[in-house]
Amino acid sequence: MAIPLLLLLLLLASSSFISAAPPTPPFSPQDNILIDCGAKSPATLPDGRSFKTEEQSTQFLKTNKDIQVSVPSADVPSPIYLTARIFTEQATYAFQLTRPGFHWVRLHFFPLKNNEFDLQQATFSVMTDKYVLLHNFKVNNNTNAILKEYLLNVTEPKFSINFIPMKNSAAFINAIEVVSAPDSLISDQGTALFPVDSFSGLSDFGYQVAYRLNMGGPLITSQNDTLGRTWIPDTDFLKDKNLARSFSVATNVVKYTDVLTPIIAPATVYSSLTKMADSKTMQPNFNVSWKFDVDTSFDYVLRMHFCDIVSKSLNDLYFNVYINGKMAISGLDLSSLTGELGVPYYKDIVVNASTMSGGLSVQIGPMNEKTGTVNAILNGLEVLKMSNSVDSLDGEFGVDGTSAGLGTKGTVAAVGFAMMFGAFVGLGAMVIKWKRRPQDWQKRNSFSAWLLPIHASDSSFMASKNSVGSHKSNFYSSTGLGRYFSFAELQEATKNFDSSAIIGVGGFGNVYLGTIDDGTKVAVKRGNPQSEQGITEFQTEIQMLSKLRHRHLVSLIGYCDENDEMILVYEYMSNGPFRDHLYGKNLQPLSWKQRLEISIGAARGLHYLHTGIAQGIIHRDVKTTNILLDDAFVAKVADFGLSKDAPMGQNHVSTAVKGSFGYLDPEYFRRQQLTDKSDVYSFGVVLLEVLCARPAINPQLPREQVSLAEWAMQWKRKGLIEKIIDPHLVGTINPESMKKFAEAAEKCLAEYGVDRPTMGDVLWNLEYALQLQEAFTQGKSEEEAKVQSATVSASPAPVAVTPISPSSDHRPVFKPEENKGPAEVQAIDDHSGTAMFAQFSGLSGR
Ligand SMILES: *[C@@H]1O[C@H](CO)[C@@H](O)[C@H](O)[C@H]1NC(C)=O
Ligand SMILES: *[C@@H]1O[C@H](CO)[C@@H](O)[C@H](O)[C@H]1NC(C)=O
Ligand SMILES: *[C@@H]1O[C@H](CO)[C@@H](O)[C@H](O)[C@H]1NC(C)=O
Ligand SMILES: *[C@@H]1O[C@H](CO)[C@@H](O)[C@H](O)[C@H]1NC(C)=O
Ligand SMILES: *[C@@H]1O[C@H](CO)[C@@H](O)[C@H](O)[C@H]1NC(C)=O
């Protein structure tokens, strides 16, 4: 037994594959820019690297207003934290690079105490020319140093990093590193997790290092790493420490090859590992699991490092690797991959956000076969966040304001939008300061108060403001706003504003259905000629409105201001208000999946208003009649009629109570203070309407039932919300999905704004509810297919599912197979004798 093994080893040793560990020269980066921001003299780190002052470095800092601060004491973890530079306006560091390719970009933040600014509360964004690195970032109560580390492929010699403070806030930075990374570090090829497939194109992404772990080993600081990286121990991420054991050998046991050099990871990583705890003393079959907190809206690359330093002989260790519960590597056989023990190996696995509903988990475990040693190992793990479709690494919006939700980057709207605003988005949208509205704005019977986001702007933004009134065509063409319609054109489109074309009536004028050009239907909103609002304000507001472009906001097509008319032309939403599809109109009921999709769309629109490029817009009148559906049932938020900007820092707007009864935030009602959390409250009521299919307020009902929010929350607290859901949903709604959804509604309806989630949080809860529903439907149809093939019956095979019933908790519901024709779900109710029917076919597919 030992002899053939020895032979094998000799054979392998003589092959050229394993050359005796080649002495790799340390990597010397071509670009190695280290800046100690705000410093008066350079700082040298324990690892020997010297951070220069801004003046010493050849890089260019462009800023109008900045402040240098420093702390005298050496009471900071590193000399680079002794100083910081604070920006109250957009600032840019411009770098001249000598070599294209991947670069480390490391941003060091340490909120040092100073008399100028509370840096813990400073809120700002950081972007390069291409990538969004941080979106509305805030250190918050974190008093530790924060390192944000990126790996970006820079293709132009000029590279800049922009710091953009939020309105009335500041940005700050303590130190910046821009350092070339070796080409061999990033390979273009990886493996997609689910379904397992090869993945190419990894070099097209930007990355943020989310985690970098040295399994079973010590902390490795920048001075001990080949590329200045930091590797932290894995113990804090282990789900059950009792199931794992650490193991290490001397670093010289690690045998690098000419492909796998210490550049990939230092020997300290490969010479230690975490393995299964001694299997003899326990049930032999278990997994070692790690769990990571990640932003689940992004895709990730997991670089998994392995090195078999535990086996006594080759071909003895085989194990499985799982990511998010899915098989990532089946029967990993390091011996056959490396040919020798102690030879490092890594694998890049691309993990799609769609598999990440419960965060990121990594597991290693034995194969189920009774062969070989029962063990599994992992030596190191790097979790890299991948840039999304709009090149953002934080938040859904790209540098030019386009949203990842748009799907493709190249839509006409997005391009036009980028051209329109690119000029100053590049320099930071925050340069523009929107003034607050005059206090009496609501009293004006104004057009803007009817359907526009209310904003005034200062003249630094509107260069041609002085000439606005008299040269309107110049004004529009110079700012590239939507299409200009002549009054005659719109007269023709609406049959001279015929009353039969009216599809909506507002306090400030009517909405007409019109047909333009090739038959495109549009909604034409014509301001009441008696409106006191000036034409100048109208124009200002169109400008603001056209800034808001999002798949889930009703978009402005054009306008007409001829003869002092104030007319806006919007896309026509053929399926009308969401509410009409929930109750009162006898339309075909929407499936639960459709309701979830529509709710998600509306949440996205509101999230964009709150956090998107225009920043801090509060809708103020969120309700099911302001969520419109297009011909494909895509939800779009309409009627920013009462919108008002939320000044940053101040966090609320004092204002007279407006909005719709039944949807009003109680805090807003009491204190007359408006925040984006007021919209969240109203959205909570919308969610209940979606679930229960009844109005927010119904005065005809017994008193305790009049207010939907109060009534439904009573049932929710009793844990019996399923008793009051829309009967059409019974039998087709997954109880877990409903639970998640009702929880989201409950959180939105919290008494105090601070306790309510953000729209972004609500969004993720809804997405999760949708996933649960989809898994449920999928599971059911598989089950049905099985039953069907097993049953030779002519009639549809009934399949029991777990129902949600308004009158009894565990009532069997029988559901025929789903097919293309109309089908029914029949709930058999022994008590009432009423069978419940729900039409669901033809709805779920939309
Ligand atoms: C920071 O704030 C959060 C909640 O606001 C709290 O849970 C946490 O303990 C705080 N951390 C520190 C270090 O104060
Ligand atoms: C960086 O991107 C460019 C352009 O997409 C590509 O040609 C190049 O190969 C990339 N560099 C690396 C090191 O992957
Ligand atoms: C890191 O490097 C220093 C100096 O080279 C050395 O003294 C120390 O032992 C190293 N630490 C580890 C964990 O390798
Ligand atoms: C290990 O985890 C995977 C994925 O979660 C699971 O399918 C498998 O059954 C687990 N193995 C053991 C032995 O528990
Ligand atoms: C993740 O999945 C989505 C939807 O299937 C796809 O559009 C996206 O390209 C995937 N991401 C990666 C990195 O493959």
In a nutshell, what does this entry contain?
Helix content is 20%, strand content 26%.
Shape summary: globular
Query: Can you say what the CATH homologous superfamily of the domain at 189-415 is?
Result: Galactose-binding lectin
Q: Determine the mean pLDDT.
A: 77
Number of strands: 46
Oligomer: single chain
Unreliable stretches (pLDDT < 50, length at least 5) are 1-22, 406-480, 641-657, 791-846
CATH class of the domain at 189-415: Mainly Beta
Q: How much of the polypeptide forms β-strand, as a percent range?
A: 25-35%
Classification by helices and strands:
alpha+beta
Main sheet specs: 11 strands, mixed
The CATH architecture of the domain at 189-415 can be given as: Sandwich
The number of helical runs is 15
Kindly report the CATH topology of the domain at 189-415.
Answer: Jelly Rolls
Radius of gyration: 31 Å
List bound small molecules. Answer: 2-acetamido-2-deoxy-beta-D-glucopyranose
Cα separation of the termini: 64 Å
Helix content: 10-25%
Description:
With 846 residues, the protein is of the alpha+beta class. Among the domains are: 32-181, Galactose-binding lectin (Jelly Rolls); 189-415, Galactose-binding lectin (Jelly Rolls), CATH 2.60.120. The chain has 15 helices and 46 strands. Strands 1, 8, 11, 14, 15, 16, 17, 18, 22, 25 and 28 form an eleven-stranded mixed beta sheet that branches. Strand 35 (556-560) and strand 36 form a beta hairpin. Helix 14 (735-748) packs antiparallel against helix 15. The radius of gyration is 31 Å and the shape is globular. It starts with a helix and ends in a 7-residue tail after the last strand. Residues 1-22, 406-480, 641-657 and 791-846 have low confidence and may be disordered. One 2-acetamido-2-deoxy-beta-D-glucopyranose binds next to loops. It is found in: Membrane. It comes from Rubroshorea leprosula. The chain crosses the membrane at residues 412-434.
